[in-house]
Amino acid sequence: MLDITPTLEVTPLPEPTATPSALLDLKWNMMTVKSPLTAFSDYKIYYPTTWTIKEYKNTPGTNDSGFSSLVLSKDGITMTIDQNEFGGDVCLYSGDAVMEGSIVRFSDYKEISQQPYVWRWGQVESVNSPYGVCELSADTKYSTLTAIGRVMLNGTTVDESTLEEFNYILEKIVILK
């Protein structure tokens, strides 16, 4: 008689993202952006009413050559999402092998699951540098081009509460197919 012992495979649950109560108390706006380029997805972005739309351009072009730019602003800080025909840079993190070409270095990052995408965001390693978002690509490298375009946060002094808002905005983006 064959003795078969069942095996149990336990998959750990992902740790939930803790939402600071200050973010829950904010009022939120929503905007839908339709991409003029086939390389990028349309998306819905939710942002606190303490942020304003500083600029929004959505220009279709011929032969997939249009562009889209959304700039949200708060107290001299801007969050920009650009969709254009230009390529992205490779993102490198501590411990990654040194590469040649157009790269952006990060010493630290936070990771966000934007199903089916994985995003990492952090401060670029340079003086007075912006915060950038990178997306895991099929070749297991991260790139500054995400499904919704190049995403950056700029400002001379970005405080912790603004970084929490930025993280929450990224988590709440809905990527439309």
Distance between the termini: 53 Å
Task: Please state roughly what percent of the residues sit in beta strands, choosing from under 5%, 5-15%, 15-25%, 25-35%, 35-45% or over 45%.
Answer: 35-45%
Sequence stretches where pLDDT stays below 50 over 5 or more residues: 1-16
Helix content: under 10%
Number of E-state strands:
13
| Biggest sheet architecture | 10 strands, mixed
User: Counting H and I runs of at least 4 residues, what is the number of helices?
Assistant: 2
What is the general shape? globular
Which series of helices and strands comes N to C? HEEEEEEEEEEEEHE
Structural class: mainly beta
Provide tags for this entry.
177 residues; mainly beta; ten-stranded mixed sheet; three-stranded antiparallel sheet; 2 helices; 10% helix; globular
